[in-house]
Amino acid sequence: KGMETPEKATITRQLKPDSIETERIITVLDETIAKLELSSLIPCIIDSLDRFADMLGPEITNNLIEHQKLSKEMERLLSSSEEHDTMRAEEQQGCLCLLEQRLKCSVRNVLRLLLANPLLCQALKYEVWERESPAEEFIKAFGEFRNFMLERLLTSPMEEEEKIQFMEDMSLQIKKNAEVITALQAELAAAIRTQEEEIHKKDNVIKDLKTSMQDLTKDCKASIQHIKQEAEKQQEEELQASQGRCARLQQDIQQLGAQLDALVVEHRVPELALRKRKCRMEMEIVNWIQKYDADMEEKQAEYEEVHAAYTEEKNQLSLLMEKRAVLLQEYSQIEEERRIQEEKKEQALKELNTLTLAATRIQAFWRGYLIRSLYKSKIKKKKKGKGKGKKTKK
């Protein structure tokens, strides 16, 4: 027996201890599915026979070529039977039956040769991805049939009766639900009619509200006209009051202008003193800036010298790091070679110990064999001497 697939292992766990016949039936169905999958790949393999020739071998290749010839002959006969008249229908039917039998035998021979090599079957399933859609649908339908059969075989008569009773209960429940749905639909229709009546009433209310809104609009227009007239009167009164305030503000501006001129004359002398002080401060600031620029130029020169020295040392460091990397790589190679040599030495020592032990055992076995053979020869000589003495006595 071959190795069990995960699907077969699951089936075996689900089967009862006394269901050997069920297991046989499922095994036959699984083998049939495997043969169907393999037979559906035959046309794809024949189309790419040059690619699979080395993998298949000469015997399988020859059988596939023969199968291809039979398939073409079948297609030719079918096409010719459609073109010719019905006079030779019986003769062509006999040829088709015979060719059909030969084609079936060819498929069985190819499957027998392929199934004899499980590794080849597995490789072909990985290599050939395409499969005709009718064959794929048939294999899928057969797999569903296999699952259906497994479910039926694993279902006891009691469970079957329970399932039938459950289906009857479900149908009864469905009928009851249908009656409830019908009643609910009637209630829904009544509710819809009631809602339509309410909507009609609401439409009448909306019409009344529109009429009242029109009356309200007229009243609003009259009140808006009255408000506009009162606003115009108030605007004239506020305009007169604002003109009086503007005249008073203009007098205040003239008074404040006179005060400003007096303050300018009063503060002119302190302003001149502050301007002189500002000039002196600006001169001092210019002197400090020039001194700062001179100091910064000296610092910049020192910085450039230090940066140049730093750059040179950095370049030297990079060269040293490159040399270090090369040395580390060489060191790692040397360590690896040492480790390989140590492993070889240990392996040689192990082999030497094994050979020494084997030689010791062989020598011990050979010595034991020599001792046993010498002992057996001595015993035989003693027996022969005793036998001669007995004959002499007689």
Produce the secondary structure layout.
Blueprint: H1 6-14, H2 20-40, H3 42-47, H4 49-56, H5 58-83, H6 89-115, H7 118-127, H8 133-154, H9 157-266, H10 268-393
Subunit structure: Component of the nexin-dynein regulatory complex (N-DRC). Interacts with CFAP52.
Main location: cytoplasm
Coiled coil: 217-358
Question: What's this model, at a glance?
Answer:
The chain is mainly α and 394 residues long.
Describe this structure in words.
It is found in: Cytoplasm, Cytoskeleton, Flagellum axoneme. Component of the nexin-dynein regulatory complex (N-DRC). Interacts with CFAP52. Residues 217-358 form a coiled coil. Keywords: Cell projection, Cilium, Coiled coil, Cytoplasm, Cytoskeleton, Flagellum. This is Dynein regulatory complex protein 10. With 394 residues, this protein is mainly alpha-helical. Among the domains are: 20-154, no CATH class; 318-357. 93% of the residues lie in helices and 0% in strands. The chain is built from ten helices and no strands. The longest helix is centred in the last third of the chain and has 126 residues, at 268-393.
Structural shape: flat
**Portion of residues in helices?**
over 70%
* Biggest sheet overview: none
Mean pLDDT score, rounded? 80
How far apart the termini lie comes to 69 Å
Low-pLDDT stretches: 1-18, 390-394
Organism: Cepphus grylle (Black guillemot)
InterPro entries: DRC10, IQ_motif_EF-hand-BS
Pfam family, one: IQ
Subunit structure: Component of the nexin-dynein regulatory complex (N-DRC). Interacts with CFAP52.
Keywords, please?
394 residues; mainly alpha; 10 helices; 93% helix; disordered N terminus; cilium; flagellum; coiled coil; Dynein regulatory complex protein 10; cell projection
